[in-house]
Design a protein that fits this description.
Order of helices and strands: HHHH
Helix content: 40-55%
Oligomer: single chain
Distance between the termini: 20 Å
Number of domains: 1
Radius of gyration: 18 Å
Shape: flat
Length: about 55
């Protein structure tokens, strides 16, 4: 990644595992049934490609 190479972004610590990060941020995961329910409720009709294109600047 260019920002790491140029020194713009610096790691907070030398060694940081994903497990440590999840624990420190109190990540609890998500409820798949609730997520599926919300997705069904909002009734998105557009194809995924169109939705993803909306995210690009």
């Amino acid at each position: 990644m260019k920002n790491f190479e140029t020194g713009i972004i610096k790691p907070l610590r030398k060694d940081l595992t994903l497990h440590q990060l999840l624990e420190e941020q109190h990540f609890k995961g998500f409820d798949r049934k609730e997520l599926d329910k919300l997705a069904k409720e909002i009734n998105i009709q557009e194809p995924i490609e169109e939705l993803l294109a909306m995210l690009k600047p």
